[in-house]
Structures
1.
Amino acid sequence: MRRKDDDPGRQRRLRKGLYILPSLFTAVNIAAGYYAISQAIQAANNQGDPRHYDLAALAIGFAIVFDGLDGRVARMTNTTSDFGRELDSLADVITFGMAPAILAWLWGFHAMAMANTVLQGKLMRFGAVVTFLFLAAGACRLARFNIQLNPQPSNPGRPGKKYFVGMPIPGGAGVIASVVHFAHGYPIASWWMALIWAFFVLTLGFLMVSRWRFPSFKGVDFRQRHSARLIVVLCALVAMIILFSDWTLFVISITYMFWGIFSRLFYGFRRGSQMPPPSPDQVVHAD
């Protein structure tokens, strides 16, 4: 007697239904981005209420988790599709491009207290340009990621290990969200801190469009056996995030950001020190 599980028609229906699962994670990703935008706007309308800024930052953090899950779920259930990839890219533009750009502008430039209102208005417009450049850089980063099959970083790492070429847009959004959460949502109130924040956001945009390598963590396979020490480390990390989310998330995001910067500088220094000596024909002798 044939079981119901062996019915080809039922298997086809089940396979088609599994495509809904990764799309649900992507939909939650979009919802988190929309919630982050609404909370940032609400904070600005309520005279810089830090609670709403903090909620916006946390929403972006949760979206990063769901963004990592939808791809893994699709690969584990063998339900990857062109539609899912395009939907994921559009969701990333909203959640990790538009939402952190609006949050960075409102949190970093909207609550400044300056006696010169004309200068304050110009600084706010400058902040709008800077955060727009962050959004544009993130969109360009996604477009490059979608069209390149096997991109190679300008500073190659260990052979056989997977890297991102340029900081991924969830990483850039995570850095902005972690800084806001580290400040517990209290916005920047001084003009000189706003200028530092503008330079910081511009740096994130540059890192996203650069060809520097960043860890992808795609080589970690949760279906394989791992040592018990890894489980202990993961449990300790989760506990630190729950108990000390402000410090833990800030340290993780800043470390990830500077890992890409220092790896590029180290590669350039090592490459310069290993350059072969010039040949006798290339040596220019002084008179």
2.
Amino acid sequence: MNVGPPESEQPALLVDDHRWVPLTPFLARYGVPGEMNAVIGLLPVLRDTLADWASTATSHPLDGLRLGAPVTHPRSIVAVGANTRSHVAEASVHTGGHAAKRPMLITKAVSALCGPHDPIRRPPETRKLDYETELAVVMGAAASHVRPDEAMRYVAGYMACSDVTARDIQTGEDEDADFYWQHFRSKSYPAFLPTGPWLLTADEVTDLSKVTLQTYVNDEIRQDSDLTDLVFDVPALIASVSACVPLLPGDILVTGSPAGVGHFMSPPGYLEPGDTLRTVVGGVGELRNRIEEAP
């Protein structure tokens, strides 16, 4: 995980539910810059040494400390659109109820990343701010043209995330033709990808089929499903993305969200300033972000 003020976070290791140890002194022993991507890339080599060091290092309380995004500088963030059967069904006005034949890949700007408790500020360009609870997969090794049966070897770990979208911008409501959809623009405003609260290493999540996805808006449950709802599972996604985009340690795959998004509710249930968005990825982590109006 990362702790500290925005743009000044330092990598840390959670040693119990309420305490942490800094990783920068540990990395300095090996001449490695103190940045979380370096930790991710070195996990396979330093895992045992890191565990021994953490057991003797001085720990600090988490109380009152800001948690940042666990991964702050990935080269790529790739989200997968309409990758649950339930979401394909609720979006049938666009999908016709048919799942994609290959994963629909949508990129998000790295600057959209924010911490698990940071505010999400609604930009003035939108009045249709929406949520999507998803599992984020963080790559641990360079991957290109990998097969599904070998894909999990390249995974460093998992995070909870919410793929925030400005739906009116995404669908090009102000355009004169139903062609100019703006996936990247609508998903890339600052704080449109809360993640965290920590990166769980791959060995800590032994059965992805048991990972649940839930969204609460002001304590009202909106989404409630699990990863068995995925159209393309994690190995298939890694294989598909790595066939066209070489992946590096720290790169993030956002794997898909179930039915219950605000856009397809009747009436629509978009996020408003003052709302609290709670994103729960069972067995991985929980985020809590307040919605504010952007200055």
3.
Amino acid sequence: MVFKSEIKNINLVERLIDDISAKYQLHSDIYGKLLLAVVEGVNNAIVHGNKLESDKDVVLQYEITDKIIQFVITDNGSGFNYKDLPDPTKPENLEKTHGRGIFLMNHLADEVEFNEKGNEVKVIFNLS
């Protein structure tokens, strides 16, 4: 799935996840975690990666096997240093209105992997 960097396109992602969940009869726990983590990743790609520039694309790919479901989200941005993120649970960061997305993704998915550049993230969920 390829779409422009506009917040309204998150609806497309939500519909895709709903369709996948119904087709593969995903457990509601997996569905909830998957929805939150993937939507957060797509939102990050749109807002932080592509800086809401609607001429830039976000690419969303997925693969499902009997053991895992994985999504790969790629933006056209310059990337970021995913190894150096502030801890949103520290007192000095609790009042900030941003900075929790990757923290959430890490806690919801079984695996989260970034490419070296930091403009692509893979979120993996175990189905067994």
